[in-house]
Amino acid sequence: MSHGSALRDFGIRKPVVPSLAAAQAEFNLWLRENTFEVLKDRSGGLWSVAVELKQGPGPLASRAPRYSLTFDLVHEIDVGELCRTGILNEETDSRLLHFLQGLSVSPLKQRMGFWEGESLGEIQAQFKEACLKAGIYVSQHDFQTAKRRRLGECLSQASMFTSRVTKE
After folding, report:
1. 49 strand-pairing partners
2. Whole-number average pLDDT of the chain
3. d(CA 54, CA 60)
4. Alpha helix (H) ranges present in 34-119?
């Protein structure tokens, strides 16, 4: 049955990524190619870029999915860095350093953005701009106060929940 020009094409006109796994793989490849995986702060600490991409239903009139992206910076704190940056001193803080062996200091996390869009390209453009701004922000700060606070929290929690703390 032919209706000639009366037929209209209601298909999606832009490319669609078929699944969340494919979208995540495509986005991770783009992320690696654009070197947004690691940022360095003023004191030399390395911050990793943590990205969470979700796919949800789009507007009811469209069959296209809607993507959301959460962008965090994460910094793993280790004892070596605390000594290197001057937060701890190997000579004067030797007992504390001995106590910290085997303990992990919770990482610093900073939420840098959240975006929603109908295409990965739309989100990538916003994310790229945010990464450039985040790189500038991180490079201008040393985060010493935040690292000291996180160390204090770790020590407080360890002293409450472990038997390693002794009075001398």
Report:
1. 73
2. 78
3. 18
4. 79-84, 94-100
Buried b (16+ CB within 10 A) or exposed e, 136-155: eebeeebbbeebeebbeebb
Rounded Cα distance between 57 and 12, Å, is 14
Q: How confident is the model at residue 62 (pLDDT cuts 50, 70, 90)?
A: low
Residue 134 class from Cβ within 10 Å (0-12 exposed, 13-18 middle, 19+ buried)? buried
Which residue, among 105, 137, 113, 107, has the nearest Cα to 41 in the 3D structure?
137
One-character DSSP codes across 101-142: TT--EEEEEEEEEEEEESSHHHHHHHHHHHHHHHHHHHHT--
Kindly report the pTM of this predicted structure.
0.66
The CA distances from residue 108 to 13, 40, 80, in Å, are: 42, 14, 16
- Is the CB of residue 112 less than 8 Å from the CB of residue 134? yes
